[in-house]
Write a structure and sequence with these properties.
The chain is mainly beta. It has two domains: about 55 residues, SH3 type barrels (Roll); about 30 residues, no CATH class. It is about 10% helix and about 45% strand. The chain has one helix and seven strands, in the order E-E-E-E-E-E-E-H. The two termini are about 30 Å apart. One of its GO terms (molecular function) is RNA helicase activity. It catalyses: ATP + H2O = ADP + phosphate + H(+).
Length: about 100
């Protein structure tokens, strides 16, 4: 379900999908995907609203997607043998994500 959340970074209300919720000392935090900006953000629970009426029917401008047949790689360093090899990883590292975003721009 799509909700409306207030993004501190963008200083506006945005449509979002809630990905996870966790408890903190001052309340709940939500990890959200902003469907019109293709960004992830953390939002306090008091900054979320139900999306009303016709706004819920507007299609999102951004969609989550994956690169077909592209698997994440990382550099595996063996300090004992003093070697470094590129091998498979479970998820993309921050440097690879940043490089991909720069290529897109």
């Amino acid at each position: 379900q799509v909700y409306v959340v207030f993004s501190e970074e963008l200083k506006c209300w945005c449509r979002a999908l809630v990905e996870s919720v966790w408890h903190q000392a001052d309340g709940y935090q939500l990890r959200c995907f902003l469907v019109d900006y293709a960004k992830h953000c953390s939002v306090a629970s008091e900054n979320i609203r139900v999306l009303a009426g016709a706004f819920a029917k507007i299609p999102p401008r951004a969609k989550k997607c994956r690169l077909h047949c592209t698997k994440p790689l990382t550099l595996h360093i063996d300090y004992c043998e003093n070697t470094a090899k590129i091998g498979p990883a479970k998820r993309w590292d921050a440097a690879a994500i940043q490089h991909f975003r720069e290529l897109l721009e």
